[in-house]
Each structure stands twice: as structure tokens, then as C-alpha cells.
Amino acid sequence: MEKFKSGFVTLIGRTNVGKSTLLNLLVGEKVAAIANKVQTTRTAIKGIVNRENSQIIFIDTPGIHKPKTKLNETMVETSFTSIGDTDIILFLIEATSEDIGRGDRIILDKIKETNKKAILIINKIDLIKREKLLKLIDIYSKEYNFEAVIPIEATNPKYKNIILEEIEKNLNEGPAYYDTEEYTDQTLRQLAEETIREKALKLLQDEVPHGIFVEVEKLKERKNKQGENIYDIEATIYCLRNSHKGIIIGKNGEMLKRIGRAARIDMEKNFGVKVNLKTWVKVKEDWQENDLFVNKFKIK
After folding, report:
1. How confident is the model at residue 298 (pLDDT cuts 50, 70, 90)?
2. Structural domains present in the chain
């Protein structure tokens, strides 16, 4: 009988390279916010994959970028802490890169310092020609002894098993750390916050999303008149300026309604119960420098 394997796998890469999309593909559930905006992932989110002979715990980290606030510094620190405390590193880069860019070089140097098993994932291969891909593989293979190099499109399910098989091959024997029914260690409250923030990121203008933070203040389960379970959720979207507040609320409250509606539909699908969602918007100008808020993003 095959021995059971388990381990922690950290996804790391530059901002907007497709880590959260890949995590959701591998886990088969929506555990990380996906939006085509920088700084979507702010904390190290765990996604759990249970296979017949293994349990793989993925840690999706914030994208590596140049920190400008205390929040940004915490995010980058979270990413690098995760690298040092993992069994396998999944290093995600873009196929469109001509060479090793500054951000990728910083990550590569950190991987070299740890000397851990690493798998290079080259995303967005649909955007380039084969010769360019081969050149990129050659450049990176000379830099580090990767266990494997896997070119992918993170939105295509056909790559899921290829990556999981490669990870399982490189794991050590070990126990299941989580119940086999679980797919994330995030609480319902955190998943609700992530979902609302993702919808806001997708629907709002570019300058606003970086400065928003969602806090669920109430999450209560009850039965409605039909005897069905329902979650009452109340959440506040914090933003940096009054002008941002106006954009988030929108004309006649339309934008906030759109964000709330999209988040509620997603939550009902993911939680498997009805959701009654209420959202408010408040201005908190210094939250990105405020320890009370920033500490929520530190790796636990």
C-alpha cells in the first residue's frame, strides 16, 4: 500500500501573476479573491487539497511589490516568512517576461537562501510563442535546480492534475493535518470579508480598491420562516477618503448595491445557505498605517 504524504506548499510570485487564480484551480473551491488588480491577496490564505494518498496545504501569499505603507511592508514580510516555513515552493512567473525582472530576482534570491524544493510555474503561455518559452525555461533552469518546470494557463483545468502530481511526488510521508472535508482554514467571517473585497475590487475604479478594507462585524446563523438556515452578515467597507466613499456608494447607492448583490450570490454558492447581507462604508484615513488594522494581515 502506498504511504500517505502531506506537506505545506507556498505559492509565491510578483503582484498580479495569477497566484490566487491558480490556488482556486488547485483547491477546486474559491478560497482566494481574484481580481485583475494589484494587492488582491493581503494575507497568507491556506487552501487544502485532499487526494487519495496525500494532503497538500497551499499557502497563497501577497504579491511581491515595493512597499509604500506599513500594510505593504507587512504583506511582503508575510510572503517571505511563508517561504522559509514550507516544504515546497511554487514559484509563479509570467511567460511574457523577457528575462528575470527585478521582482522575480528578489524572490529567486530568497528561494536560493532557503535551498528548499521548488517548482517553477510559468503562467500565461497562451500569450507567447514556443521559442520564447524555451528561452525563459533555459534562463531560469541555469539559476536554480527546480524539481520541475511547468508551463500553464492558470484558468485551464487541464493543468490541475499535472501540478498536483508533481507536488505529491516531492512530498514526504506525513499525517493529514486537517479534516479531509476541509478545503481552507479560513473562518466563514474571513471568507465573507474576502468575497466582499473581491467584488469591490472588480467593480470599482483603479484608484479606490488599494485603499479598501472589509470587516465583518456580525455573522449570525438563524432559521427563516420556512425553516431554512440563513446567515445574517453585517460588514463595513473602510476606505481612505470621502471621495472614495462616494465612489463606493455610487449614485443613489447603486454601486454598493451591486457589490453587495454580487458578494451575496457568491457566498450563498460557497456557504450552501441563504445570506442576508448588509454593508456600510466608512472613511478611515490612516488604516494602512494603523497597527490595529495592519496586524490582521500578519502571518499567524
Report:
1. very low
2. 5-173 (3.40.50.300), 188-297 (3.30.300.20)
